[in-house]
Amino acid sequence: MSVRSGQGRAVALLRVTTTTTASRARGLHRFLSSASACLLFEPPRAGPGRKSAKTEIAGRGELPRGSQSFGRLSMGILFTRIWRLFNHQEHKVIIVGLDNAGKTTILYQFSMNEVVHTSPTIGSNVEEIVVNNTRFLMWDIGGQESLRSSWNTYYTNTEFVIVVVDSTDRERISVTKEELYKMLAHEDLRKAGLLIFANKQDVKNCMTVAEISQFLKLTSIKDHQWHIQACCALTGEGLCQGLEWMMSRLKIR
After folding, report:
1. Where does this protein hold Mg(2+) (predicted)?
2. Over pLDDT 70: what percentage of the chain?
3. In 125-158, which positions are buried (b, 16+ CB within 10 angstroms) versus exposed (e)?
4. 199 annotated to bind ligand
5. 98 in a known ligand binding site
6. pLDDT score recorded for residue 112
7. 99 among the known binding-site residues?
8. Is 102 left (phi over 0), alpha (psi -120 to 50) or beta?
């Protein structure tokens, strides 16, 4: 079950993948091979303590003999494909919420499609998530009380805020509300969309989506697009629907 602002529409299952430099290089190799080209590809410079290396990517074969226009067309197609591979816009997303809400579990469900063992996040985790050729750079930020004052250091250029709520934690829902409205009042988030994951819906006697929406007074939010989605981080149920909502917001901008 989900409650959302705006018109409802069918939700399709999305394919979510992560992207690495190595996978991009493999994709580039396929493009170059198809155009029978040969060049030297240099990955981004490695950070301190890591080796930097050049990878030679060679195409084999022979272009058919013909007019020069064929060669220009082939190279045009080649560089168009390369540009598309490396120049997708990234959309910054921050994942926040109180400690033990399930933020890190959700991040790695997105990136690995599996449950990983997690410990309380000190600082942040970051992953690049690709959904139907749309790239999201997702920052999972620690939710302990001592860390919440540093959340605002991540706000710059944020397009979406994901707030993860522990649906079993009735005692601290008022704290979640306080932190939520403190964030929404920040200048750097004035244009950010808001996605709320009501996590742990598989637990008996948890708060429903309607209850959480009422506790947080979501209908009073007029200056941000928002959506609340029931989910279970352990199984992944409901997560794709949340991503679908973010994708729909990007399409109407």
Report:
1. 104, 121
2. 62
3. bbbebbbeebebbbbbbbbeeebbeebeebbeeb
4. yes
5. yes
6. 84
7. yes
8. left
**Catalytic site positions:** 144
Q: Are the C-beta atoms of residues 196 and 216 closer than 8 Å to each other?
A: yes
How far is C-alpha 25 from the chain's CA centre? 22
* Contacts of 46 by beta carbon, 8 Å cutoff, 6+ apart: 52
Residue 245 and residue 227 in contact, taking contact as beta carbons nearer than 8 Å: yes
Give the torsion sign (CA, 163, 120, 157, 83).
negative
Structure-model confidence comparison of residues 16 and 123, the more confident one: 123
Tell me phi and psi for residue 41, to 5 degrees.
-105, 125
Question: Whole-angstrom Cα distance, residue 20 to residue 27?
Answer: 11
Is 101 one of the annotated binding-site residues?
yes
The helix (H) or strand (E) run that includes residue 251 is helix 239-251
* 201 annotated as ligand-binding: yes
Q: Which tokens go with 201?
A: 């819906």
Taking the chain, what is the end-to-end CA distance rounded to the nearest angstrom?
26
Residue 3 has pLDDT above 60, yes or no: no
Residue 11 CB partners (closer than 8 Å, separation 6+): 240, 241, 244
Residue 34 Rama label (left phi>0; alpha psi -120 to 50; beta): alpha
pLDDT tops 70 at residue 1: no
Mean pLDDT estimate for the chain: 77
Give the CA dihedral 16, 19, 117, 240, nearest 10 degrees.
Answer: -10
**Tokens 């005692």 — which residue?**
171
Phi and psi, residue 167, nearest 5°: -70, -10
pTM for the whole thing? Answer: 0.67
